[in-house]
């Protein structure tokens, strides 16, 4: 039997992504995890991810077990493959938040149950689903809308851009030199049928867009680069003048945590155009829908 995993958002087809988005709105989902467990492995600390995924499992009738890094010791105490094999003995789904994306790939290669990427250095698919849910709740539909991601072309930017292309949105990437999307990332985005506008000017990126999105300039594990990054990104703060260039009904998104005064000013992240708390709420609905879909696929088989 071929098991479906969710390591990046385009592990789903466009139709499957729409299916997951629709499932997120179901108030009483099928209790596909009733009497069953879901292992949630956190090699990196988490606030939104742990809370949203634990609640998602509970809402599907299952029992979530969160596991911290030193409890499994991936590739120190046991190989990633053996961790996956062991956890699959007890659980119907395994989620993992890791530093290195290849760890997820190795787990997925041997796991008889779905592996879900709760965040890696390359991708953040559940966040992208939550982002699309937020945008859809604001505008009613996704196709034809334009999202501008400004800042570091990181894992969040990649998953967001791919997901947006998959649902017919237009994508813009405004990043400082040296921190923009590489050709591998751009090819992955273009494979969805959208050709993103790529620019080093934040003003060009946000002109007339429906959604302005940013993330922290220094992510977990990059702390030694902080001073260098602060200098490189100093003109990429989302402030009132940046939002004024977007469309009249534009909204601001941020995956959180936010560093007020760096990538975004307080008046924007806490202001009337901000939808960041709805995004945080949607993380739970996104996880529930994705887990539901994956477990159902596993039960159906090929």
Any overview of this molecule?
With 302 residues, the chain is α/β, with parallel strands linked by helices. It has two domains: 9-124 and 283-300, Aspartate/ornithine carbamoyltransferase (Rossmann fold); 125-280, Rossmann fold. 42% of the residues lie in helices and 15% in strands. The chain contains 13 helices and nine strands. It has helices at 14-23, 48-59, 69-72, 80-88, 101-110, 125-139, 155-166, 183-190, 202-206, 226-232, 240-245, 266-269, 276-300, and strands spanning 37-42, 63-68, 91-97, 115-119, 146-150, 170-174, 197-199, 211-214, 251-254. A five-stranded parallel sheet has the order 7-6-5-8-9. Helix 2 (48-59) packs across helix 13 (276-300) and helix 6 (125-139) crosses helix 13. It is globular and about 55 Å long. The chain starts with 13 loop residues before the first helix and ends with a helix.
**Order of H and E elements:** HEHEHHEHEHEHEHEHEHHEHH
Question: How many DSSP helices?
Answer: 13
Could you state the CATH homologous superfamily of the largest domain? Aspartate/ornithine carbamoyltransferase
Number of domains: 2
Q: What's the mean pLDDT score?
A: 96
- The rough form would be described as globular
Q: Report, as a whole number of angstroms, the end-to-end distance.
A: 6 Å
Query: How much of the sequence is in beta strands?
Result: 5-15%
- Secondary-structure-based class equals alpha/beta
| Spatial arrangement of strands, main beta sheet | 7-6-5-8-9
The number of E-state strands comes to 9
CATH fold-level topology of the largest domain: Rossmann fold
Rg measurement, Å? 19 Å
CATH class of the largest domain: Alpha Beta
Biggest sheet architecture: 5 strands, parallel
| Proper CATH architecture of the largest domain | 3-Layer(aba) Sandwich
User: Uncertain runs with pLDDT below 50, 5 residues or more?
Assistant: none
Helix content: 40-55%
């Amino acid at each position: 039997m071929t098991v479906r995993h969710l390591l990046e958002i385009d592990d789903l087809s466009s139709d499957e992504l729409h299916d997951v988005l629709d499932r997120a709105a179901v108030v009483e989902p099928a209790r596909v995890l009733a009497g069953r467990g879901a292992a949630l492995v956190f090699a990196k600390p988490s606030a939104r991810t742990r809370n949203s995924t634990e609640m998602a499992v509970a809402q599907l009738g299952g029992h979530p077990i969160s596991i911290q890094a030193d409890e499994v010791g991936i590739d120190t105490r046991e190989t990633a493959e053996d961790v996956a094999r062991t956890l699959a003995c007890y659980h119907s789904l395994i989620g993992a938040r890791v530093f290195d994306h290849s760890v997820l790939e190795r787990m997925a290669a041997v796991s008889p149950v779905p592996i879900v990427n709760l965040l890696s250095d390359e991708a953040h698919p559940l966040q992208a689903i939550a982002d699309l849910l937020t945008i859809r709740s604001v505008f009613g539909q996704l196709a034809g809308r334009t999202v501008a991601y400004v800042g570091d072309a990181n894992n969040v930017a990649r998953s967001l851009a791919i997901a947006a292309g998959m649902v017919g949105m237009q994508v813009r990437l405004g990043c400082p030199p040296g921190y923009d999307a590489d050709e591998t990332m751009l090819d992955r985005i273009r494979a969805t049928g959208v050709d993103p506008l790529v620019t080093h000017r934040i003003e060009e990126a946000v002109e007339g867009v429906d959604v302005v999105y940013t993330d922290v300039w220094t992510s977990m594990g990059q702390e030694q680069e902080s001073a260098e990054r602060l200098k490189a990104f100093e003109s990429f703060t989302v402030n009132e003048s940046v939002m004024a260039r977007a469309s009249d009904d534009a909204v601001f998104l941020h995956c959180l945590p936010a560093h007020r005064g760096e990538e975004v000013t307080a008046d924007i992240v806490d202001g009337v155009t901000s939808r960041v708390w709805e995004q945080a709420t949607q993380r739970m609905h996104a996880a529930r829908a994705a887990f539901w879909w994956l477990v159902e696929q596993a039960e159906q088989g090929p």
